[in-house]
Design brief:
The chain is of the alpha+beta class and about 160 residues long. It is about 10% helix and about 25% strand. The chain has an eight-stranded mixed β-barrel with strand order 1-2-3-4-5-6-7-8. The longest helix has 11 residues.
Amino acid sequence: MRAATLLTCLFLIAPPGPAMADVPLIILDRTQLPFDLGPGHPANNPAKAANSPNAAWNSSGNTANSGAAWENRPTNPANEKRLIITADGGVLGYYATNAGGVLNLFDINGNRIAYRPARGTRSLFTTKGSWCGTVDGNRGGMVLAVTRSCAQAFGR
């Protein structure tokens, strides 16, 4: 099954919730993931320099990725429109994009859980650099498909 088809099917079983900007988070079965979306693909490899948590824009040391930055705070009203939700509508956290284009995922307390580098991959990585899942942006919405351990990092 093509990657886009697989994630589109996942999107249909995990509806986006009450607001169009809310993003469903689903648990993926890594063994069922197409090669082009998994960590074995060269673009998605955690060892790739652009995917590293030490790359300037991905780094936890970059203030643009900090939960203390206004754009990333849970108290920022804009983040109320960028929720990460479960299929039953539970809120796990929110997402925000930094000036360099990195997509950051935060739990409800503003702790950075994962990121997607700005270019070259749709993969998500933990703040320590482990492969964590993938992002699909089809149909005008977005779906986060993550490993069970990555989902557990959201504290739920």
